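#lab-general

N.A. 3:47 PM
ok so I finally got the sequence cleaned up, no stray characters, all 242 residues accounted for. can someone with queue access submit it? mine expired

B.Y. 3:52 PM
send it over

N.A. 3:53 PM
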Amino acid sequence: MLTLTTSDAIHPSRRPSDDALALSQLEERLPPLLSVIAGMVDLTGFFTLGNIFTAHATGNLVVIAAKAVRGGPLDLAQTLSVPVFILAVAAVWLLARASGRRGPGLTRLLLQVQFLLLTGILIFSVITKPSANPHGLMAGIAVMIAVSAMACQFALFRLALPGGISTAVMTGNLTNTVLSLMDMLSNKRPLMTVDAGRLKRSLYLLFGFLVGCIVAAAAISLLADWAWSLPVALAAVAVALP
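B.Y. 4:20 PM
back already:
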């Protein structure tokens, strides 16, 4: 028996080949843009919200563990950011399951969720000015919103864009880039399977993340809490991508 997914019901004329082409285009176009957003969110959060990594849960885990072992005071917002990240990823999975969407349809949905969360932190920050007290309650709430937005972005790659290179593993992207370059420069048999296309995409992600950090640093000095408007604008561009 032929069954229709939610995406099929909405777009009855769409063929599997159309979805495959659209997914391939999204896997090519989205990661560099999302890496810029991740860099902006990470640095803006770090500078304005109490030196907490809003886009890298690993960094928060390291700091929490170090403070726990050395007996230093734990930052409540930083400590809560890890379980909030886990809950946000789980919520994204539930949303994806409930929507019944796959591929491009699910990608659009999660990009919209990311946009709404980033818009939420912009509005919240402009109204409450959390940067004025980076370790206060308002800053802690802003951290949780930002962490949730990034959890949505990272889950998007696993659930909707499996062929894309994740923006969540910059250390891994840097490692792959260096190893691939070494193999390409060597006259001997490569130690890895050199994929020039994947190497180029990894470089784009690294460059994009760095650009995002640099632009965010400049924006913070000029715009203060309004610096969140930049990742919001780029998130809107991501939603609008054809």
